[in-house]
Specification:
The chain has 285 residues and is of the alpha/beta class. It contains 13 helices and seven strands. The protein has a seven-stranded mixed sheet, sandwiched between helices. Strand 2, helix 1 and strand 3 form a beta-alpha-beta unit. Helix 1 packs across helix 13 and helix 2 crosses helix 3. The longest helix is centred in the first third of the chain and has 14 residues. The radius of gyration is 17 Å and the shape is globular.
């Protein structure tokens, strides 16, 4: 895993975990607001993005939730970090929730954009959501098809920009930001990882056998025991704020949910001050 670091190795570790289809650049504003000589701020490129790579063709090219969560813990191991505060949205939020649920001793605190996002794959495969929500997930159904996989290969920037503008309708993002971020979509691992992620979560593709024990535990929706602040934009048009309502039972420590007015899906880039404040509040209650 490739990552960017600000601050000394001896500092308090904070991991900022990005989503799909974004990368580390969407955390620049948050990083600039929280960095100090006393913090080790780490922003990894998730599997499938930018310079992060599968090192062998023998490695299972998985985008499933257990893989994302285990990557977080494996990165902590590689960097010699015992416990860290995790901040995440979209794929990164799910990775943070998985790590906090399955490896509670490794997570000091959590800021989760979108709430508790651990998946029950068997249930997801058979349980429809509301008609409006199903409409918003068009890209996930598209990616179940060979046409959709080829579309992501050939039109990745066009599709990803459409997702940005659709999911965050009030965000007037800079074209230079998108162009810089889109370089991460050119990874040879981007398409296969994304396609596997969206197929496996509906049981339309097998998961990595090495991760099956973790998926079994995640299907039970394990609780998260670290202090947690949930953030949700009320203009998020892919995961509306209703999806994080009533989740208090999934958290056994301090829990707070904050809904942000006129903010969409990419909350760290749209409202970095709010994310910064959540980090400060959860790190120093």
């Amino acid at each position: 895993m490739a990552y960017e670091q600000t601050g000394p190795d001896s500092g308090e570790p904070i991991l900022l975990l990005h989503g799909f289809p974004y990368d580390v650049r969407e955390y620049d504003g948050v990083r600039d607001r929280i960095m100090s000589n006393h913090r080790r701020v780490i922003v990894p490129y998730l599997r499938g993005f930018g310079p992060t790579r599968y090192l062998s063709k023998e490695v299972f090219c998985s985008g499933q939730q257990a893989a994302l969560g285990k990557d977080v813990v494996d990165l902590l191991d590689a960097l010699g970090i015992e416990r860290a505060t995790l901040v995440g949205y979209d794929w990164g939020g799910r990775a943070a929730c998985v790590a906090a649920a399955l490896w509670p001793k490794r997570v000091r605190a959590l800021v989760s954009v979108g709430g508790y996002t651990v998946q029950d794959i068997a249930k997801s495969a058979t349980t429809p959501q509301t008609a409006e929500q199903e409409k918003q997930l068009w890209y996930q159904w598209y990616f179940q098809t060979e046409r959709g996989q080829r579309g992501l290969e050939e039109n990745r920037n066009e599709l990803c920009k459409l997702m940005w503008s659709t999911w965050s309708p009030t965000w007037q993002f800079d074209e230079d930001l998108f162009a810089t971020t889109a370089k991460s979509f050119q990874s040879p691992d981007f398409v296969p990882t994304a396609i596997h992620s969206y197929r496996q979560r509906y049981a339309c593709a097998p998961g990595d056998p090495a991760l099956e024990e973790f998926e079994t535990r995640l299907a039970e929706k394990p609780v998260i025991s670290c202090p947690t602040i949930v953030l949700h934009g009320d203009s998020d048009l892919v995961d509306p704020p209703s999806t994080s309502e009533g989740q208090e039972r999934q958290f056994t420590n301090r829990y707070e949910r904050r809904v942000l007015h006129n903010i969409g899906h990419c909350l760290p880039a749209e409202e970095p001050d709010t994310v910064k404040q959540a980090i400060e509040d959860i790190a120093h209650p």
